[in-house]
Automatic annotation (TrEMBL):
Residues 95-126 are annotated as: Disordered. This is Uncharacterized protein. It comes from the Bacteria. It comes from Allocoleopsis franciscana PCC 7113. The keyword Coiled coil applies. Keywords: Coiled coil. Residues 95-106 have a biased composition (Basic and acidic residues).
C-alpha cells in the first residue's frame, strides 16, 4: 500500500511538472497574442470611430470645426495607444498577482514544489501524462518555449493555472469595455453621439450587448440600437432614436486579423491541455485520498 501511495505521489509530481511547462507555453503565447491584440485594437478603434462619425452621424461631424475634428481624432488615437499599453501590462500584473496567491497557499503546504528548468517530460511519467507534453499546433512564431527557466513562476497545480488564465482573460475583456465606454463618452462630449441619451443608458446597453453572443449586422465593433427618448418639443411625448456607438468585441477583433485569430486558436489548444491536466490531477488526488484512507483503516484495525 505504501508503494501505491508513493507511485501516486510521483504521478502528481509529474502532473505538476507538466502544469509548470504548460504555464511557460501559455505565458509566451499570451505575450505574443497581447502584442498583436494591442495593435489590432488600435486599428479597430479608429475604424469604428470613423464609422460613427462619417456614417452614423455625418452632419454632427461636419458641424465641427477643423481644429475640433483634429482634436477628436488625436484623442481617439491616444486612447487606443493607452489601451495597447494596458493590454501588454496585464500579463505582468497577472504574474505578480498569481505569485502572491500561490505564496499564500504554499505557506500552508509543507511539500515544496519541484523546480523545473527544461521542457522535457519527467522520466517517471505515465503514458497518460506523457501525452500532455505533445506539441500544440499553431501559427505563431516559437510555438513551444525552449530553455525557459520557469522555476520562478510558482504555478504547479492546474487549478492555479486556470485561475491565472481566467484573471488574464477578464482583464482583457475589461480593457475593451472601458475603452469602448470612454470613447463613446468622448464622442458624446464632442457632440457626435446625441447628448439627450443618458450616458448611464448607453453604458448599460453596451454591457448588455457584451453579455450576449449576438452577431453584429453591418460594421463590426459597433452598437446599433433603437431607443426611446423624450421629444425636444414636448416632454410628455417620446420618439425612437437610432443610436450608433462603439462596442469593441474581442471575437470581432480576432476575426478581422488572421494572425491574431491563429494566436487565439493556439490559446484554445493550450487551454484544452490545461483541462486535461486538471482532470488527471483531480483523479490522482482522489486516488491518493482513497489509498491513504485504506492504509489508515488497516493501520488502526485489529481483531477482537
Amino acid at each position: 500500500m505504501a508503494r501505491a501511495i508513493e507511485r501516486i505521489e510521483q504521478d502528481l509530481a509529474a502532473l505538476e511538472d507538466a502544469t509548470a511547462l504548460l504555464r511557460a507555453e501559455l505565458d509566451k503565447t499570451y505575450s505574443q497574442y497581447l502584442q498583436l491584440l494591442g495593435q489590432a485594437v488600435r486599428r479597430q478603434l479608429i475604424l469604428a470611430s470613423y464609422q460613427v462619425c462619417t456614417h452614423g452621424y455625418p452632419q454632427a461631424f461636419l458641424s465641427l470645426s477643423f481644429s475640433q475634428r483634429q482634436k477628436l481624432q488625436q484623442s481617439i488615437q491616444q486612447m487606443g495607444k493607452k489601451a495597447q499599453e494596458q493590454l501588454l501590462s496585464h500579463l505582468e500584473a497577472s504574474k505578480k498577482a498569481t505569485q502572491e496567491e500561490v505564496r499564500d497557499s504554499n505557506s500552508n503546504d509543507p511539500a515544496p514544489q519541484p523546480e523545473i528548468t527544461s521542457n522535457e517530460p519527467p522520466q517517471d511519467a505515465t503514458p497518460e501524462i506523457l501525452s500532455i507534453f505533445e506539441p500544440v499546433p499553431g501559427n505563431l512564431e516559437a510555438e513551444a518555449p525552449e530553455n525557459i527557466d520557469i522555476s520562478n513562476l510558482e504555478l504547479a497545480k492546474p487549478e492555479q493555472l486556470a485561475q491565472w488564465q481566467e484573471q488574464l482573460e477578464e482583464a482583457i475583456a475589461q480593457t475593451l469595455e472601458t475603452l469602448s465606454l470612454n470613447t463613446n463618452h468622448l464622442l458624446q462630449q464632442t457632440g457626435i453621439i446625441p447628448s439627450k441619451l443618458p450616458a448611464a443608458v448607453l453604458e448599460a446597453a453596451t454591457k448588455a450587448d457584451n453579455s450576449t453572443e449576438s452577431v453584429t449586422v453591418g460594421s463590426p465593433n459597433l452598437l446599433n440600437l433603437l431607443m426611446e427618448t423624450e421629444s425636444e418639443d414636448d416632454s410628455e411625448d417620446s420618439t425612437l432614436t437610432r443610436i450608433i456607438a462603439i462596442n469593441l468585441r474581442l471575437s470581432e477583433i480576432e476575426f478581422a486579423d488572421p494572425t491574431l485569430n491563429a494566436g487565439r486558436n493556439q490559446i484554445r489548444n493550450l487551454s484544452a491541455k490545461r483541462n486535461t491536466l486538471h482532470r488527471e490531477y483531480h483523479k490522482k488526488q482522489r486516488e491518493r485520498s482513497v489509498a491513504q484512507a485504506e492504509a489508515a483503516w488497516r493501520a488502526s484495525w485489529f481483531e477482537d
